[in-house]
Specification:
Helix content: 40-55%
Shape: globular
Distance between the termini: 18 Å
Number of strands: 12
Strand content: 15-25%
Largest sheet: 6 strands, mixed
CATH topology of the largest domain: Nitrilase/N-carbamoyl-D-aminoacid amidohydrolase
Low-confidence stretches: none
Mean pLDDT: 92
CATH class of the largest domain: Alpha Beta
Strand order of the largest sheet: 5-4-3-2-1-12
Number of helices: 16
Structural class: alpha/beta
CATH superfamily of the largest domain: Carbon-nitrogen hydrolase
Number of domains: 3
Order of helices and strands: HHHHHHHHEHEHHEEEHEEHEHEEEEHH
Length: 552
């Protein structure tokens, strides 16, 4: 006879075990092999859950625990906001549990194995897109230590890696359920083995093919500062201090590589507004522009910097006085060429397109005011006055970098845009009716991770690796507080700087001529999983109409 409470302990322990195993699989611990079995305890719980209510409730608890273990660093911004967000993210485990348990997938042989994989992949995609999305901590990201198994991402995105991992987990759960009877296991074992062999063989082929597809690109220097960011929006250093640091590090990098560096990158929002309208309103901004222009022209090096955009200036009453304030504020990237010229007109600067809810704007301000007011109450005090404008989706600026008789093209996703796989693919997607090659040769990500601490830096860098694989492009990252450095087109990190370590690193990018299926077609594989999950959910609903539910 079971002890009182033992059933409850088991129902909690299995989802929580999955939360712990998966946490250890992600950066910075990076025990990637644990992701091959990390979902299995949760799946075993679903196999024995007495009801849909029980499956949902305990899965939600396990999912929330997982996100708390991995994203607790958001408490630096807002503790209530962190709690609300992570409970919401945990909900996706609950919903996936409903579908998997409702269709009895865990013990359904080969169909169940691939059904589980489709459902888990589908809910990751939904979480990454619903309400602008949070594509963080995707299961596939854990596998960056074994890049050979990640190369299939150039077909199906990171979702393809998530899929084979989830299938392996479903097989592990099935093996445990039938540990005393292997008769039902032969076909699932063979099927998953074939899937893994195909993914591994494809990865081997793509990586072996790579050297023949490369050509020499520019030499880049990325600067890494280490300024903590307050949740009031203030940085941990004045503009003059930030300017002094970045100029000093840039000159040091140039001195070590005289006449060789083609482009220097400074991270997100390190500089004040640089657009012409802002400079016309403030002489200090004009002097800042002149200094950066001279830095580029005197050293004959292009300079890319993250900075603010401030436009549409109007008089506003603040504390009893009329002051001139910008109504149009953006998170932007500006390029000074080797002659010190900078064009800040639309199409020549880049304005961040995918804004982060609660970080760069508060959702529902006009559509659901009551919900907006609740969000403001949960956030830092500055929230009610803070709202950035997004760049238009069709304005994915391609910058040009001249190097002798060459012209290289690059794009600049800002901050968490480098975890928006679909947006990054669109930045490289060949233009309709064009020559057919990628729109750009490489990617430069400008990020400010100074808001956060602990494992966030490593997790962000781990996710960024997949944008290189998906699109077969090298990348440079200039990140306040790190991780800055270079990544090649197979996802291999190069010359990285440790988190929270100020400095610079220099490396040459090797350009990859391949145009991938994922670049051309985006999330087609993931959408197929969503369609399959919808069919499985319907099948489960129909099944339950003929089966009496036991109480939880």
């Amino acid at each position: 006879m079971a002890r009182p409470g033992s059933s409850l302990i088991r129902r909690l322990s299995l989802p929580l075990s999955s939360a712990v195993l998966l946490t250890l699989a992600f950066a910075p611990v990076s025990q990637y092999y644990l992701a091959w079995i990390g979902l299995a305890p949760w799946l075993l719980f679903l196999a024995e859950a007495p009801s849909q209510r029980s499956a949902f409730k305990f899965s939600w608890v396990g999912g929330t625990a997982f996100f708390v273990m991995n994203m607790w660093w958001m408490a630096h911004i807002s503790v209530p906001g962190m709690v609300a967000l992570l409970i919401y993210c945990g909900l996706y485990w609950g919903l996936a549990g409903l579908v998997i348990r409702g269709a009895a997938l865990v013990d359904r042989g080969i169909g169940g194995v691939f059904g589980v994989a489709a459902v888990w992949t589908a809910f990751e995609w939904i979480r990454g897109h619903l309400f602008t999305g949070l594509p963080w901590l995707y299961l596939g990201y854990t596998q960056t230590p074994v890049l050979n198994m990640c190369q299939v991402a150039d077909v199906g995105g990171v979702y393809a890696v998530t899929f084979w991992l989830a299938a392996a987990n479903a097989l592990a759960a099935l093996l445990w359920l039938h540990r005393d009877d292997d008769a039902p296991l032969k076909r699932p074992i063979i099927s998953v083995a074939v899937l893994l062999a195909l993914c591994g063989g494809y990865g081997w082929y793509r990586m072996r093919q790579t050297p023949a597809m490369l050509s020499e690109g520019p030499l880049l220097a990325v600067i890494q500062s280490n300024y903590p960011q307050s949740n009031s929006g203030a940085k941990g250093a004045s503009l003059s201090d930030r300017l002094s640091f970045h100029v000093g590090e840039t000159l040091a990098a140039l001195a070590k590589n005289p006449g060789q560096i083609d482009l220097v990158a400074w991270s997100e929002t390190m500089m004040a507004p640089l657009n012409a309208q802002a400079r016309a309103e403030d002489e200090d901004l004009q002097r800042l522009h002149q200094l950066l222009s001279q830095l580029a022209s005197k050293n004959h090096v292009a300079l890319l910097t993250g900075a603010e955009y401030a436009g549409d200036w109007k008089s506003q009453e603040r504390e009893g006085q009329l002051v001139l304030m910008p109504m149009d504020c953006r998170n932007s990237a500006y390029l000074f060429d080797r002659d010190g010229r900078m064009d800040d007109s639309p199409g020549h600067r880049y304005d961040k397109i995918h804004l982060v809810p609660f970080g760069e704007f508060i959702p529902f301000k006009r559509t659901l005011p009551f919900l907006y007011r609740l969000f403001v109450a949960l956030g830092p005090r500055y929230y009610s006055d803070y709202e950035l404008q997004a760049g238009p989706r069709d304005a994915m600026t391609v910058f040009e970098l001249k190097g002798g008789d060459r012209v290289w093209r690059f794009v600049t996703p800002i901050c968490f845009e480098d975890i928006d796989a679909n947006l990054c693919a669109a930045m490289f997607r060949p233009a309709p009716g064009g020559p057919g090659g990628k729109r750009a040769d490489f990617l430069v990500n400008l990020t400010n991770d100074g808001w956060f601490m602990a494992n966030e830096n490593r997790q962000h860098a781990q996710a960024a690796i997949f944008r290189c694989i998906e699109n077969r492009v090298p990348a440079a990252r200039s990140v306040n507080t790190g991780v800055s450095g270079l990544i090649d087109s197979t996802g291999q990190p190069l010359r990285l700087l440790a988190p929270r370590t100020p400095g610079w690193t220099v490396g040459k990018l090797m350009l990859d001529s391949r145009v991938t299926f994922y670049t051309r077609w985006g999330d087609g594989f993931a959408l197929g999983c969503v369609a399959a999950a919808a069919g499985i959910a319907l099948m489960g609903w129909m099944r339950r109409q003929t089966t009496a539910e036991r109480p939880s």
